[in-house]
Amino acid sequence: MEHRVIYVLVLVCALTLSSLAQGQQETCTVAPHHRDNCGSPGITPSQCKDKGCCFDNTVRGVPWCYYPVAVDNPPEGMASVALWGLRMQNQGGNPMGAQGSP
């Protein structure tokens, strides 16, 4: 029982620290109806991009120059942590017990 608790706590701590270490990235992939206007009518693509905004004039009735949105970067090492856990379960030294489940 103690090994399972320790294993889970270590895994949670590792994932939490990994996600806290990651920053955010901006993307221009925004649904047209969620765009926040970043420019004035008649702004050119270069003027819009100079302001650090996104430009897309393919959809009528929504801002063409709009703010990018922040998205979380996937934590690095997340896949390797998951794979490490799988390898541990497939080996004889499974920290989750002989059956591999609590």
UniProtKB/TrEMBL annotation:
Q: Quick check: keyword Disulfide bond in the entry?
A: yes
Tell me the compartments it is located in: Secreted
Q: Which CDD domains match?
A: Trefoil
Q: Which SUPFAM superfamilies match?
A: Trefoil (SSF57492)
In Pfam terms, one family for this protein is Trefoil
Enumerate the spans annotated as P-type domain.
Answer: 26-69
Which regions span the lipid bilayer? none
Q: What is this protein called?
A: Trefoil factor 1
Signal sequence coordinates: 1-23
Organism placement in taxonomy? Eukaryota, Metazoa, Chordata, Craniata, Vertebrata
Q: Which pairs of Cys residues are joined through disulfide bonds in the record?
A: C28-C54, C38-C53, C48-C65
Primary location:
secreted
